[in-house]
Amino acid sequence: MVFCKAFPIIDFSVSQLGPDTYQMGSKFLCKKATGEIPQNAVVSWEDGDGQYYLVEATDMNPPVNTAEGLIHQAGTSSAVWAIGTQVVCKVKTWVSGMERESDTLAFVASRFPHIPIPEVIYSWVDEPLNRTFLILRRIQGQTLLSAWPSLTTEQKADMATTVAQYCRDLSEATAEGLQSATGCGVLEPFLNVEEEESHPSWKPTLLGPFSRIATEKYFQRISPLMPSPIGDRFHFYHADLGPTNILLTDDGAVRAIIDWESAGYFPKC
């Protein structure tokens, strides 16, 4: 794999054009309304004492800066901005055949409405820039990582029980192969073999979709160890359920599970 930044670089996916005006990739402008929402707005949302909205734009110049509010960046392929006070815009590099996180969130919301997840405001694929944009309602809360030292023993046990139950519930959804929620390949870098030297580091690599037999052959190819038997069904799992992806309330309860981009059906073993 060759280290190679996406163009424009991921930091420039959301660019600042003015105090309350953002260029989002090559397709949309995001503005704070000074009056009524324009009729050609594709979506709008409340933000304190005002509203933001998205409109399609044409003939936009390539972005030349990064907008204020960059709150997270993961290497060359992912970044998150706070837009106003009520939403975040999550940008990730994309390849054809890759499932959008918004589709995964829609699946979880429909099958497991009791599991708290972010609310999707709008999402789209920016094909010219090879990236996805996802606008989510911002969730107030501490990550489990930051809150853990201040939790009581009882709060830690309650939180662990809740998360374990969510995992059991998700695993009740099954499929016949290794795949995403809607049948695409999965984003699981820890299961991917090393890429060719010419593969750009920014470019996501999809695993599958694989049938059971294809999954068994793949595991045999990437490891000298004998793989555990794979059953007839694959079970749905978040696949990145670390302490930074669990948000808690002030009293230690689970407020939301975030970052579902790697979720999919995996072997139970």
TrEMBL record:
Keywords noted in UniProt: Kinase, Transferase
Which GO molecular function entries does the Swiss-Prot or TrEMBL record give? kinase activity
Which part of the chain is the Aminoglycoside phosphotransferase domain?
74-265
Name of a matching Pfam family: APH
Q: Which InterPro entries match?
A: AGP_Transferase, Aminoglycoside_PTrfase, Kinase-like_dom_sf
Source organism's superkingdom?
Answer: Eukaryota
**UniProt name for this protein:** Kinase-like domain-containing protein
Q: What is the lineage of its organism?
A: Eukaryota, Fungi, Dikarya, Ascomycota, Pezizomycotina
